[in-house]
Amino acid sequence: MSVVPALGAQPALLPDWLDAEHLISSFGSYALIGIVLVVFVETGLLFPLLPGDSLLFTAGALVAQDALDFPLWLLCVLLFAAAFLGDQVAYFIGHKAGPRLFRRPDSRVFKQQYIDQTYAYFDKYGGRTVILARFVPIVRTYAPVAAGVGGMRYRTFVSYNVIGALVWGVGVTVLGYLLGTISFVRDNIEALAVLIVLVSVVPVAIELWRGRRAARRADGGRDERYDEPAERAAVERKAFEQ
Fold first, then answer.
1. Out of 14, 33, 101, 172, which residue is the most buried by the measure of CB atoms under 10 Å away?
2. What GO CC terms are in its UniProt record (predicted)?
């Protein structure tokens, strides 16, 4: 397997761990396995800082350019499976760990603001968040966990998860494949990957800003006798069970 550099000797626009093309190239002959594992880890093992969207798009584009030596159908089948199983694992982590998981102290990867942001999406979109969150970095990692914590019915979650894995894992990959033969895309694939990351991050930034503004407004009237995370989980559980 060989990966054809899209930008030649131009300087990288993203750090190596976010540069989808560099990441795929680093996998060498194990590119297919590496791509699938990255998607599974991001969606299932609470590690949000990976290039999900741009990885899918770039993988599809490189297959179209014959820079990867496996067929599109195989890539799509395995990415669908990885995206679906990843969310299943995350759901059961949330279901088994419960609210304790959401009270963990901040670490390099886990931040309470990620959880707050995910709850904001559930408040706004309900169960559809499982689908919509696929296209939002960080939120896609914690949405299935929040669904498990909140007690969303498993059958309902699986239905949303199948649709989400299909439109994201397969849809974005096929989009990259269809556009990958266009000369502009082929010559600027890394720049386009940066654009995908930036566009994906915009909703995250907006929700964080709204959340912080709402938190500042509510600070004065907060009653510390109540355990906010537990109360919030109870509210979400009631909504999911309906």
1. 172
2. plasma membrane
Here the tokens at position 174 are: 């096929």
**How many domains are contained in the chain?**
1
Residue 148 lies in a domain: yes
Domain hosting 185: range is 20-217+224-241
Is residue 9, in this structure, part of any structural domain at all? no
DSSP string, 139-200: HHHHHHHHHHHHT--HHHHHHHHHHHIIIIIIHHHHHHHHHTTSHHHHHTHHHHHHHHHHHH
Q: What angle do CA 73, 77, 78 make, to 5 degrees?
A: 120
Amino acid letter, residue 118 = T
CB contact at 8 A, 51 and 23: yes
Handedness of CA 242, 153, 110, 117 (dihedral sign): negative
Which of 131, 118, 53 has its CA nearest to residue 87?
Answer: 131
d(CA 77, CA 42): 18
Residue 211's pLDDT is 61
Nearest to 182 by CA among 6, 11, 12: 6
pTM of the model: 0.71
Tokens 């190596």 locate to: 16
Sign of the Cα pseudo-torsion (223, 211, 129, 170, in order): negative
Cβ-Cβ contacts under 8 Å for 226 (sequence gap 6 or more): none
48 within domain boundaries: yes
Q: Give me the average pLDDT of each 10-residue run along the chain (242 residues).
A: 43 60 90 95 85 88 91 97 96 80 60 67 76 83 84 88 94 90 70 61 60 65 48 50 49
Shortest CA distance to 137 belongs to which of 17, 41, 52, 207?
52
